[in-house]
Design brief:
The protein is of the alpha+beta class and 399 residues long. The protein contains twelve helices and seven strands. β4 and β5 form a beta hairpin. The protein binds adenosine-5'-diphosphate. Residues 263, 267-268, 271, 295, 297-300, 308, 314-316, 331-337, 366 line the site of adenosine-5'-diphosphate.
Length: 399
């Protein structure tokens, strides 16, 4: 039976070689292919085709096009056509029965090769991305430290100027206004530099936490106090509800947690129009406390729910942001949420957002969820190792 197919192949090979207008090189390759195909049929072993497939795969796509090398599927199609046209029904059926398993193998083999090559490309890209991420992180850390020195000088000279004016009893309102402007500019710059340093600590998983007894209800009251000025001036309402579990004495880094929650609340203030409402609520779960920060502001597009936690990812047209830090839509460098996320995760917690979408006309609002483990005792490990026992997490940026 095999003999019929081998003979048919010899016949078809001649036809196909006649049809293809190619170089001697291609003819040789095709002859080689058919030689192997016949051996595959004779020995019922499709893997004998592998050396050809390897070689075909190694010839890159441009070369394949240049030499008009047919793909394995094109050859199969030609065999079908010639078999239909030139062979008797019996010979054609026999041939197809014999060669189909070979072509199935060839396709699978090629698919595996293709996958392998894609995986190589992806891992190369991943390495490049990791290197880029590392350079970004190094840049942040170096820039932050380099900016600190001139800023300290500016702050120092500003303070000296103030003293000299006082000593010389010069009380000029204009000069004091200018000094006020300089002070607030350097304060903002210092905040940004500190944020950059925090981000690089988080990126490198070296943010260390100082676990102290902490009551959430007290911490949230402090937050309310912190924001009373913008809340009043922008006619916002900031309500903090008491909830089950807020009275538990937990071991957290109160200062860092304050920073994380304040970053989220500061966004709620920024992205809620004047007269809007912000509520902080929560509940006790089996092993966690969940804090909710709910606003009725402009909301966040569902595509951006994860992106907003990446560093330097402020959403929307930065040029349209207003300049005041807590003004409606006041812009920022996009570090507030990555820092909040880093601090919360260093506590073994999680943060995420829910929002129906971004809509500056109907204000769908956003709800930020913060999940914190209940810790009745201070943890024994350093903070950066806290994550694993509670969640299996991806490293932030471990190089
Ligand atoms: P930024 O410094 O820009 O405020 P953040 O990291 O704090 O950076 O926030 C990232 C982006 O997430 C913001 O630019 C904003 O577009 C969006 N965002 C965060 N919180 C809210 C919120 N409560 N309502 C609407 N958008 C928000």
């Amino acid at each position: 039976m095999d003999q019929i197919s081998v003979e048919s192949i010899t016949l078809i090979q001649g036809e196909i070689l006649g049809d293809i207008e190619g170089s001697e090189n291609i003819d040789r390759k095709i002859e080689g292919f058919f030689g192997l195909l016949k051996r595959c049929i004779e020995f019922s072993d499709p893997t004998l085709l592998n050396p050809f497939l390897d070689e075909w795969w190694q010839t890159n796509e441009v070369e394949r096009k240049e030499y008009s090398l047919p793909s394995v599927n094109q050859i199969l199609l030609s065999i079908f056509n010639v078999a239909n046209r030139d062979l008797s029904a019996e010979m054609a059926n026999q041939l197809l029965r014999d060669i189909l398993p070979i072509f199935i193998h060839a396709n699978q083999y090629e698919q595996a090769k293709y996958l392998e090559s894609q995986i190589k490309i992806i891992s190369k890209t991943q390495v490049a991305l990791q290197q880029l991420e590392k350079s970004k992180s190094d840049f942040i850390s170096i820039a932050a430290h380099e900016l600190k020195t001139p800023l300290t000088l500016l702050e120092g000279y500003g303070a000296m100027l103030r003293e000299i004016l006082e000593q010389k009893k010069i009380f000029d309102e204009h000069i004091f206004l200018l000094l006020e402007g300089m002070d607030s500019g350097s304060r903002r710059l210092r905040e940004i530099i500190n944020d950059m340093i925090d981000v690089s600590l988080i990126d490198n998983q070296i943010l260390s936490l100082n676990f102290q007894p902490t009551w959430l209800y007290q911490l949230l009251e402090k937050i309310k106090f912190e924001f009373q000025k913008p809340v009043l001036s922008r006619n916002l309402s900031l309500e903090i509800n008491r909830f089950s579990g807020d009275e538990i004495l937990n071991f957290y880094d109160g200062e860092r947690l304050f920073q994380a929650i304040a970053n989220v609340v500061s966004n709620a203030v920024k992205y809620t129009p004047d007269g809007g409402k912000i509520t902080i609520d929560g509940r006790k779960l089996a092993e966690f406390i969940e804090i909710l920060i709910i606003d009725n502001g402009i909301g966040i597009d569902t595509h951006d729910h994860e992106k907003i936690f990446d560093k330097f990812e402020p959403i929307g047209e930065v040029a349209y942001h207003s300049s005041g830090k807590l003004k409606y839509k006041g812009g920022g460098p996009g570090l507030g949420l990555p820092i909040a996320k880093g601090i919360i995760e260093a506590h073994g917690g999680r943060i995420w957002v829910e929002s129906e979408g971004y809509d500056e006309a109907n204000f769908p609002g956003s709800t930020f969820h913060i999940l914190l483990p209940i810790r009745l005792e201070p943890p024994s490990q350093p903070s950066s190792n806290l994550y694993e026992p509670l969640f299996t997490r991806k490293p932030l940026n471990k190089m």
